[in-house]
Amino acid sequence: MIWSKEESLSHDEMSALQSKRLQDTVSKVYAKVPFYKRKFDELGIKPQDIKTIADVAKLPFTKKQDLRDNYPFGLFAVDNSELIRIHSSSGTTGKPTVVGYTRSDIDIWAEGVARVLTMGGITKDDTVHVAYGYGLFTGGLGLHDGATKVGATVVPSSGGFTSRQAMLLKDFGATALACTPTFAMHILETALREGYEPKKDFKLKAGFFGAEPTSRGLKDELAKGLNISYHDIYGLSEIIGPGVAGNCKHSKDLHIFEDHFYPEIIDPQTLEVLPYGEKGELVITSLTKQALPIIRYRTGDVTILNPQICECGRTQVRMKNIMGRVDDMLIVNGVNVFPSQVEHVLSNIDEITLNYQIIVDKKGYLDKLEVMVEVTEDMPMDSIGALEMVQKKIQSELLSNLYIHANVKLVEPRTIERSQGKAVRVVDKRSLK
Ligand SMILES: [Zn+2]
Prior knowledge:
The chain is α/β, with parallel strands linked by helices. Helices cover 31% and strands 25% of the residues. Helix 11 (384-402) links the parallel strand 19 and strand 20. Helix 1 crosses helix 2 (34-43) and helix 4 (103-119) crosses helix 5. Residues 248, 250-251, 255, 310, 312, 314 line the site of zinc ion (ZN).
């Protein structure tokens, strides 16, 4: 089943719809959002210059920093009386990015999620156990509203309390589970340890997972362990939340709901638009959002677009699973870590140099982060007490500044391999195939 007719429009029908919606969006942001008026004026663009969807390439980009600079509501295009919800991203430092929704935005968001749930065969006869966190994070309420739109019974379990999650899955007989993949694995492992037989005791048939990069191995293990079809659900709060894209049963690539969210792939260095099939940064323009319309948002996610019509009958373009982050951002156990932030912490510690390497690996299903760093020439390597003190100091600084637990390894000067005189800063051993 396909949730809405827009998912299988012909190319021409889709282009016409997108063109009309882009014109409306551009007129709106030009009139209502001073940030966009200024940017358009700088480029000499007037709303009437935008006639078809192809003209999107003339428009300026929006970056995460633009949302921060206009914190909290500076990019909103509606009055407070029209807003019905606020969400925000989970930044580790500084101000979060804030997003707002009108009633129509919440409907569109719920529709995106409903489309993905429908791809997994979910109908009003199903029960959806939502174990994403509820709150400012868009996961919990996003899946909640989408499942409600489908007419399914929602179990708003939220995160945490793993033993109870397993108990409720059995007792309430949920047929779908929605949460982060690592939390799903945690529930599965806990259930097994506590003597459940998930394939028999649970009635699950589909799972909807997102919000973190996930290896194919973990996906397969979850699909097998819980006896479900595995569905990726992609989204980001700046665009709307989860429900921007999802995969059907015929494809591992995700259909993007391009009647609402127009995707482009750009070269992150030259900012040129790349043709379908080429790898680059995903850029999305919202076409129907009211409270926070967003023009050419640079997601920082690296992927490839595939326009081939899918066996499922949907015509909407598909994207490959996110292959990485443009800015080398590391996601360690769900926490964003920038190498530059680690470097900043290290730079405040006297006994070490800035020759360091961040090594990320997996231990079980958890990420393990190690910071290997060279000490200064006058650090006594034979004094275990002194080394331990420095190690503890670095660990506690990383924890209090970046909220990350790291194993710190101190090594002698000139131990860390350099390639062409420059140290390799990040070694990510996690396989993301
Ligand atoms: Zn499909």
